[in-house]
Predict the structure.
Amino acid sequence: MSYISKRISALSVLLSLGMQTVAVAALTFIGDSPDLYNEPNLVGVNPFPGNTNPSVLETLYGENNLRRVDDAIDLAFRHTGAVATVKAVARFNNPSIEERFGYFDPSTGFLRTVLQFKRVPPNSFFPVGYNLPTLGDGLIALADSGPVFEVGMGTRRGSNPPRNDFGQDIMVTFEIVGATGHPNNQVGNYVIGWEYFPADDLDFQDLVFEMSGVAPVPEPAALLSLVASLVWLPQVRCRRGSTSLGA
């Protein structure tokens, strides 16, 4: 194996371990859904009297089948195959608001939409609940996005907090690690819950999506720099060695 190949292999191992060298941050707080709309929590039992709804994650996956991902390492995602997929699994947001899910190319910041909710009769509002109708194929191709990409709901609403209004973290991530009581669970997929408005109720169930063919990673610019250094520096050393030998 060449020196460069060894470096690239080392990088792959580093990414597969979830970049454990990154400092562990406190988990972003997930609040209870407000009593006003009788909505389910994203996770946990809602304490308001009369709200007997099981949580979104309990209903869809079983909470015991999920593992919370540290918020220091879900700022972006890397491909684990040629194509990643995303599907909408829940929405508990204002029916009049149109949302679009897309991915950011870290080098351009351009958001490419791959999924959006579909208006429904009779008032052409956007529905609330589980497994709602959507438009778009939900596909994120490696060839289009590059190996590492951010995801977002629009301008200043994305997975990387420094790009958001007030630098707020508006996305939380869970990994599907089991299928007890939920045989259709796809172990290894990731569930992401969004808080659509900054400094709002912080219940993170405004929009919930499931992604496959990805793994969460820290801020992509740092990873891209690491890739460049692992590939470029050995070439520079090799060239310098060749020059000195030929002198």
Remarks:
- Residues 179 and 185 are 5 Å apart (CA to CA).
